[in-house]
């Protein structure tokens, strides 16, 4: 589960990065039919050789359709990226005498439900009989992650592999203005969900916890969630008081090696990045200068501070220059 989660984060970020790279090249050839990526890096990680169509119809699972015993996470990974307005087609047989274990399609509300196959707050998008014939069509027309799962057998189908998630990307717009200084997005959608109106700053200085600083009793996972995304080269600033007569329970900053340690607040293989007195004054600065997930935690009181909320993780994204 931990592995999958990490992979997922990486996947999300890879897709975000592909988008960043895709929209970052000023040598974009103009022309309304030219729906390529605008990429001309020689070292790019990902390239479409053929012109990209405006939208696609993708059969989930390919010739396997939507069935028990197939790993759709793996399928989604190898078939990514998916784009805005792509149509996913789910094909599955309706219940019948020969089909005692039919399938369905649910959308899970978040990553946590997805990881756990927790269907309690899931929303059904297709019942067991809607996958017949040409299949059930689902258009990726929102800019958000979609967590799909089969909702049958109390989550057993989901746990056995019938789940996957996608984060649709935007295609590059052909109306990209040429010019070497014009490092904008290459987007010209009027309804785009995300737009920088001001030139993007190169990096930010973010105080962890905002005015709460780095303190006991604050939920930093929640803070990180509402303050995401974080970008490559952003500086996180941790402010906390040094030990003193009036501060018997000081804090520190550790980096945990993986999601597993993070979930359990297992500090055994953690690396200290700041001791209890380094959060004074202007605070301790940490630059997100690697492209990897960072699992932060307070290392004091044998993990009790961590368990009580003093932990969060970030996965820095690349900016869309
Ligand atoms: C892409 O790069 C190649 C080699 O660097 C160059 O010959 C070509 O003109 C470039 N294409 C565009 C559209 O900039
Ligand atoms: C997505 O499809 C809708 C309806 O067909 C269309 O109005 C919209 O322009 C499309 N958006 C993108 C980004 O392709
Ligand atoms: C599934 O949904 C369709 C369309 O809403 C409906 O006609 C059908 O009766 C439903 N089938 C079941 C098994 O609920
Ligand atoms: C599906 O594949 C992924 C790796 O791509 C693996 O982490 C996961 O455990 C697999 N799921 C099942 C149910 O086998
Ligand atoms: C962006 O779209 C607007 C309105 O559709 C249009 O007036 C403008 O010229 C477009 N800009 C570019 C760079 O294509
Ligand atoms: C990050 O900062 C370093 C050092 O200031 C700089 O060399 C590098 O280009 C920056 N990278 C990005 C992606 O902004
Ligand atoms: C914390 O680290 C700083 C800088 O490395 C050092 O000067 C200080 O003595 C350390 N404080 C404690 C309590 O270990
Ligand atoms: C922090 O908030 C998250 C949801 O955002 C929740 O899942 C978690 O249990 C909370 N942690 C603590 C220690 O309250």
From TrEMBL:
This is Phytocyanin domain-containing protein. Residues 56-170, 204-318 form the Phytocyanin domain. GO terms for molecular function: electron transfer activity. PROSITE patterns: PHYTOCYANIN. Residues 1-24 form the signal peptide. Keywords: Signal. The lineage of its organism: Eukaryota, Viridiplantae, Streptophyta, Embryophyta, Tracheophyta. It comes from the Eukaryota.
